[in-house]
Design goal:
- The protein is mainly α.
- 80% of the residues lie in helices and 0% in strands.
- Helix 3 (52-71) runs antiparallel to helix 11 (261-286), helix 6 runs parallel beside helix 15 and helix 7 (149-175) packs parallel to helix 14 (342-354).
- The protein starts with a helix and ends with a helix.
- 52% of the residues are buried.
- Keywords: Antiport, Ion transport, Membrane, Sodium, Sodium transport, Transmembrane, Transmembrane helix, Transport.
């Protein structure tokens, strides 16, 4: 039990050291934190192994990160970005889905529609559809671009992408006989969640306005806000099957127009920045284990990563261009949407449990998460530096 304290100490010290090293090299600090996980994890020194305790800290970290993202959102910019973000998310799901299906078919042969091998290929594409906004959010925050129209568009598109990804996952699992939930149920749950979020949000918003006016700049408003964040994350995941980070993001959106929104954001950032976020980013590196790689799996994994990254850049970038972004900003949107994280792991785990994919493909998923988590911040920093 007490080993968690040893592990946390190693994670925090190494994450801070490599984050500072990354900053010295003019790279985003999140890259250093991910590399710290690679160094102290099973991939290299094997000082810390993934565990349930670390997973819980990491999950709290990503929930808090999305909550503060919602708190810092400009509502007017969000409303303006809504239709654009939806189009980007739709194209950003369709292109990787087709690319992943084609990649598997090229490696293992084209199969007849409806056959088990066809659904296996389709599921590889489904894994590619998932977008993890956490790394991009941290990078945009560090670059001071999170509250811009471009940053709001990327974050909104990634959240919508998660919802569409859940629908696609259910379709594929249902068609292959590996799911008990129908597509209609998923669509209904999604609609009900957003309807419930609007009702709960209006009630909580009015209550928080009263509390904010009565007790401005006090700990109690931060505590109540955190409770609301965790409640929305729980409700989203437990009752509607929506990712907990989506619930946390919406909780932040509900509170973002409060006078004390920036105060709450700063207070939550203290815990997030010093403990939970470093554990989350380091945990990505901790999950990487290359001991079971074979030449064939390694080749497939490398192609899997390349196709997954390119299809997101092409799909989301072209959709952004259709929405009248210039080529430079379209490329930033595509790059910002190419990170993968916990959602891709969840999708892969669902496929494994349903017998649609084998465990060997987890190597490809982990490799994609690590590569995209490192490449995306570096690429975004370079693109924003160019203007």
């Amino acid at each position: 039990m007490y080993s968690i304290f040893r592990n946390l100490a190693l994670i925090l010290i190494s994450a801070k050291f490599f984050a500072l090293l990354a900053r010295k090299c003019r790279a985003p600090q999140v890259v250093g934190e991910i590399i710290a996980g690679l160094v102290i994890g099973p991939c290299l020194l094997n000082l810390v192994q993934p565990s349930d305790s670390i997973a819980i800290f990491a999950e709290i970290g990503v929930v808090l990160l999305m909550f503060t993202t919602g708190l810092g959102t400009n509502l007017q910019e969000l409303m303006r970005a809504g239709p654009i973000a939806t189009l980007i998310a739709c194209v950003g799901v369709a292109v990787p889905l087709a690319g992943g299906t084609l990649l598997y078919s090229l490696f293992y042969g084209f199969s007849a529609l409806g056959s088990p091998e066809f659904y296996r290929a389709l599921f590889i594409g489904t894994i590619m559809t998932a977008t993890s906004v956490s790394i991009t959010v941290a990078t945009l925050q560090e670059l001071g671009k999170l509250k811009s129209f471009l940053g709001t568009t990327i974050v909104s598109a990634a959240v919508i992408d998660d919802v569409i990804g859940i629908v696609v996952l259910t379709c594929v699992l249902g068609a292959s006989g590996g799911a008990d939930t129908s597509l209609v149920e998923v669509l209904m749950d999604t609609i009900l969640f957003f309807a419930a979020a609007i009702v709960i949000g209006l009630i909580i918003h009015k209550a928080m306005l009263w509390l904010d006016h009565r007790n401005p700049h006090t700990q109690r408003i931060t505590i109540v806000s955190l409770a609301f964040c965790f409640a929305m994350a729980y409700i989203a995941e437990q009752y509607f099957g929506i990712a907990d980070i989506t619930g946390a993001y919406i909780a932040g959106i509900v509170l973002c127009s409060l006078e004390d929104a920036s105060y709450i954001e700063r207070r939550v950032d203290i815990s997030s920045y010093t403990l939970f976020s470093p554990v989350f980013f380091a945990s990505i590196g901790l999950k990487t284990d290359i001991s079971g790689l074979t030449p064939t799996i390694l080749l497939f994994s490398a192609c899997f990563v390349i196709v997954a990254l390119l299809t997101k850049i092409i799909g989301c970038g072209l959709a952004a261009k259709l929405c009248r972004f210039n080529w430079g900003d379209s490329l930033k949107v595509g790059v910002g949407m190419m990170t993968r994280g916990e959602v891709a792991l969840i999708v892969a785990q669902k496929g494994l449990g349903a017998g649609v994919v084998d465990s060997v493909y987890f190597t490809a998923v982990i490799l994609l998460i690590v590569v995209s988590s490192i490449v995306t911040p570096l690429a975004l920093k370079g693109l924003f530096a160019k203007g």
